[in-house]
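[audit] Reproducing an earlier prediction to check determinism. Same input, same settings, fresh worker. If the tokens differ from the archived copy the diff job will pick it up downstream; this log only records the rerun itself.
[audit] input (350 residues):
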Amino acid sequence: MSSQPQNPGAARRAAILGTGLIGSSIGIGLRNAGWFVTGWDPDPVAISKAGAVGAFDEPAGDRESATRRADLIVLAGPVSEIVHGLGRLDTAALVTDVAGVKAPVVTAGHHLAGFVGGHPMAGRETSGPAGASGSMFRGATWVLTTDGARPDAIDTLSEIVASLGANPVRMTATEHDEAVAAASHLPHVTAAALVEAVASHPGALDLAAGGFRDLTRVALSEPGWWIDVLTANSGPVADELRRMAAGLESLAGAVERADRVVLEERLRRAREIRGGMAAPVETVSMILEDRPGEMARVGLALSLSNVDLRDLQLRHSVHGGGGVLTLSVRAGEAARLREALEMERFRVLD
């Protein structure tokens, strides 16, 4: 299977079936890489918004016309729709998908010689094409399933994925589904449960600060999409939930016994594992006043200091009046950023 177009000398053609956040982002990225992209979506509002953000070169009136001359077909809807769409597809083109569960998708696509299951590990809490970006996949892991896939098809899709800035990783559908049940699906259900638990205590949400918001950010995701994923991967997710419940019960016992040794060991181990997940950074915290132009001045300080900004977090004052902005930069750059912020007359915290 070659990534070259069916018509030599012509631009490579891709068909995006499903122009939501991920599908539109892939479309933008492929167009940036020189592909001619056709977009189709059963929702006319979605296709209109996707066209407005540049997700495709031309819209298609139906699935068949979208895929007719495609060298690459990307199915980018919910899991159930992808499974249904694969069953109806008959093509010699390279075909992939973006579903967060792979076992039912791989089964549905086994009749296609050029099918390789895919899952880009990237996204946002908001859905829809309005938030799409061609840079969404830069540095992200993109899983490619090996079940029944031709080696040349996997190689070609790996090159395409890499051209979007992602890191292709090969694994079986079962390996993928068990891994994401722990690393992706469990955190989402846990975030929802945590929001419910805190909300059940009168006044508790009023006291929630940055840590609570960080832990529960994914609870803002579209419920319908997640219901599809969780039910499609029900076995592994249920196993992970029970395993976590057992761990929480063990922690509850340690807290009840006031067992400082066990609590310190569990918290220390978690801290070490989490600390090893990201590149070393230094943080600089500052007071952000509630007035126009404050973020513009922060941007100026970042530009003048020429630091590598890795992350930022704004902890708002509950009753207005600005808040505390924490900037994470590459190790060794904090002093330079601090100096630039102070030159802009910000109050930098120790």
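[audit] rerun output stored. Observation attached for the diff report: The domain at 281-343 is CATH 3.30.70.260 (Alpha-Beta Plaits).
[audit] end
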